[in-house]
Amino acid sequence: MPELLLPFLGVVAILTITPGPDTLLVVRNGLSAGVRGAWLTGLGCCLGISVHATAAVLGLSAILAASATAYTVVKLAGAAYLAYLGVRLLISTIMSGEEPTPERMPQVAVRGNGAAFRQGLVTNLLNPKIALLFLTLLPQFVASDEPRLRTTAMLAAIFLGIAVLWWRTFSLAIGPISRVLRGRRSRRLLDGVAGCALIAISARVAFESNR
C-alpha cells in the first residue's frame, strides 16, 4: 500500500464531497427520478473521473496542462454543455404547463434515466480541472522509494472507489426526499432553480482564468 495513503484519503474525501456542477445534476436528477436517477448520474460522473484518472496515470493529461489552447477549448465546451442543460431545464419548466398523459409517463422516465448517466459523464469529461487535479494531486502522495506508475495507478483507483461509494450513499439519501417532491409543481420549481444555477455555473466556468 502507498506510504502516504492516510493523508491521501483525507484529501480525497474533502474533494469528493465538495459541491460542484456534478452535485447539482445528481440532486436534480435524484429529486426528479428518485434513487435510480441520482445513482445513474453519479455513475456517469465516476466514468468521467476514471477517464481523467487513466489519462493522468499514462501522462496524457500533461498535454492538456501544457496547452493553453487545448485547455480553453475543453473548458468552453464544458461551459457550453452546462448552459445547454440549463436552457433545456428552463424550457422544460415553461412548457410543462400541460398535464402529461399516462401514456407518456413511462417514456419520460426511460429517457430521463438514460440522460442522467450521460449528463454525469459528459459534465466530468468536459471539466479540464479534473484532469489537472489528477495531474497535480497524485504525484504528491507517491513516496520517492515507491514505483511511480504502480502507486499512481493505485491512488487513482482508490480515488475512483471513494467517488463510487460517495455517489451511492448520496443517491440513497436523496430517495426519501424525492418521494416527498413528486408533485408536478415541485418538479417545475426544481427544474427552474436547477436551470438557472447551471447557466450561472456555465458563465463562471467560461470566464474564469485558465490557471
From TrEMBL:
One cellular component term (GO) for this entry is: plasma membrane
Residue spans crossing the bilayer: 6-27, 39-64, 70-91, 121-142, 154-177
Subcellular location, principal: membrane
- State a single Gene Ontology molecular function: amino acid transmembrane transporter activity
Recorded topology in the membrane: Multi-pass membrane protein
- Which keywords does this chain's UniProt record carry? Cell membrane, Membrane, Transmembrane, Transmembrane helix
Where in or outside the cell it occurs: the entry states:
Cell membrane
Q: Name one Pfam family in it.
A: LysE
Q: What is this protein called?
A: Threonine/homoserine/homoserine lactone efflux protein
What lineage does the source organism belong to? Answer: Bacteria, Bacillati, Actinomycetota, Actinomycetes, Streptosporangiales
